[in-house]
Amino acid sequence: MTDLLQLLFAGLSQGAVYALVAIGFVAIFTVSGVINLAQGEFAALAGLVAISAVGSGLPLLAAVVLAVVSVALVAVIMERLVIFPVKRMTTLVSLILTLGVSTGLKALMLLVYGPNAEGLTPLTPGGFSVAGVSIRYQELWILLIAGIVSLAVYWFYERTLAGKSLRACAEQPVAARLVGISLTKASLISFLIAGTVGAIAGVLASPIFFTSWESGLTLGLKGFVAATLGGLISVRGAVLGGLLLGVLETLTAGYISTGLRDAVAFLLLIIVLVARPAGIFGRSAEARV
C-alpha cells in the first residue's frame, strides 16, 4: 500500500508539470488554431536560463522570475516573427512552422548551455515522510503552483470577458472581428500565456527531473498528449489529462517496467485519436481536431 501511495504522489507531481505544458497548447489552440510544437522548448529554455542565472550569482527567486519573463518574451517574439506574417494559417502550416522554431531553439540551447543535464536549486530543499511515503518539498511546490496557475488560466478563459473574447477568435473569427475583437492582439496574448505557463513548468520541474537542451522534446510530447485528452480546447481537460498521464506513467514504471514508461503517452495518444477524437475529457473539439 505504501508503494502505491508513493507512486501515486510521484505521478501527481509529475502530471502537474505535464498539465502546465498542456495548458500552453490549449491557450494557443483555442485562440488561433495553432498547435505549437515549441511548447516543450519553452519549459526547457526556462530551466536552463534559471540554472545559468543562479550559477552567475543571482538569487533563486530572481533567477526564476528572469527565466519566466525571458521565455514569455521569446514566445511573443515567436508569434510576431513566425505566426503573424502567415496570412492563411492551417494546422499543417502551424506544425511545420513551430517544428522549425522548436528545432532552432534546441540548437541554440545546445550551443549556449552545452549537452549536460542539470538541475535547478529547489525552492525548498529536503522533504519529509507521511505514513511511509517520502514527500519532497519541491513536489509540494509543483502541486501548489500548478494548481494556482491552472485555476488562474481557467478563470481567465471561462469567467472573464477578455478570456471569452480570446476564445471567440478561434470559434467565430468573423463574428469576433465584427464586434471589434482584434485577432492579432488575441494571438499575441495567447502566446504570452503559453510562454509563461511553459516557463513555470520548466523551472518547477528542473530541480527533480533535470533540464537539458533536449528535455523539451519529452515535456512537449507529454504536454501535447495531456492536452489531446482534453480535446485541445479545455483547460480543465488538459489538467486532468496531465495528472492522468503522470499517474499512469509512474504506475507502469513501478509495477511493469521502467522501459515502458514513455510508451504510455504514445499508447494514450493512439487510443484517443482513434476511439475519441474529442478527447476523454472533451466533447466539442471533435470537428476541429
Automatic annotation (TrEMBL):
It is a multi-pass membrane protein. Keywords: Amino-acid transport, Cell membrane, Membrane, Transmembrane, Transmembrane helix, Transport. One of its GO terms (biological process) is amino acid transport. The chain crosses the membrane at residues 16-38, 44-77, 89-113, 140-157, 186-209, 229-251, 263-282. Belongs to the binding-protein-dependent transport system permease family. LivHM subfamily. It comes from Modestobacter caceresii. The lineage of its organism: Bacteria, Bacillati, Actinomycetota, Actinomycetes, Geodermatophilales. One of its GO terms (cellular component) is plasma membrane. It is found in: Cell membrane. GO terms for molecular function: transmembrane transporter activity. PANTHER family: ABC TRANSPORTER PERMEASE PROTEIN, BRANCHED-CHAIN AMINO ACID TRANSPORT SYSTEM PERMEASE PROTEIN LIVH. This is ABC transporter permease.
